[in-house]
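Students often ask why we bother encoding 3D structure as a string. The short answer is that it lets us treat folding as translation between two languages. Here is a chain of 263 residues written in the first language.
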Amino acid sequence: MENQHKNQKETLGEKGENLIELKHVSVSYGGVKALDDVSVAFREGEIVALMGPNGAGKSTILKAIFGLAPLSETSSENHSGIYWRQNKISEEMRQPHHMVPMGITLVPQGKRVFGNLTVLENLEIGGITLKDRSLLKERVEEVLQLFPALRSKLHQKSRELSGGQQQMVAIARGLITDPRILLLDEPSLGLAPKVVQEVFEKISEINKKKGMAIVVVEHNLKSLLPIVHKAYVLDKGKIVVEGKGQDVVDSGIFKKVFLGALE
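And here it is in the second language, the structure alphabet:
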């Protein structure tokens, strides 16, 4: 029965329902459109890559979902907005403190750990919304099974860890609430190539073992594309290509958007 359940989870990326949809979403900063009428969907159990040059709008998608970026006013006729399991998220609810209980977690770029706190304290902060201390203890144990290298570091100050270890702590902390979708912003930023490979192997493992949807903003395409189910390429705030990872590579779109040759 356990193996059957595992196999079901592993195929969720192919047949899962939509968890989050952005429909005709626009975001502006100081009159400049960071997102321009963007529509994307993230399904249960799939790994999705958001790719494109700097300033394309990749991170803005994550911030918009998590309530960290204001949506521009749009016509109500096209049902624009952000939807969670087919239900539109109101502006009142589109706040980070509502997103986490809903099942959405964001791990921002830059190995964001509390350096003066121990690894264990960092993990416990990830479960600050959990009122049951025994449940928090269970969740910490669950993430330590996914990140066994952190077990010996539990009582060490996070600032003393390597960059790769700090990134693992940040991702592990994001898993404490057992979200249905994990948003990762540039998880390989500033890491050595060997460590980058370890991070993406861990992302794939989390997806397979927990059936969790994962959305990754990333520049390191070589390491990321082999593990993704779907990819979106953005340029100047718009989606220019979407499809399976290798199909996107074969389309030649990267040469166009990164060299500025896109018409």
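Translate back mentally: The chain has a mean pLDDT of 87. Keep this in mind for the problem set.
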